[in-house]
Amino acid sequence: MMKDSLAAARLQNTLGNLEEGTARFNENMEALKHNFLFRRYFKKLEKEKKKKEKAEKKL
Fold this sequence. Notes:
Distance between the termini: 50 Å
């Protein structure tokens, strides 16, 4: 498969697009965390995560 330069180029392009899409998704999620409509939801998730970590440390 790697001897086929066209397939290798397409695979490399696909992986590049995937990385770019992931980076943009992360940017959008970070923006949502600061949006006033979603801020409470993300703060609640963070609070639950800290509570869970604290409970795991006690064990």
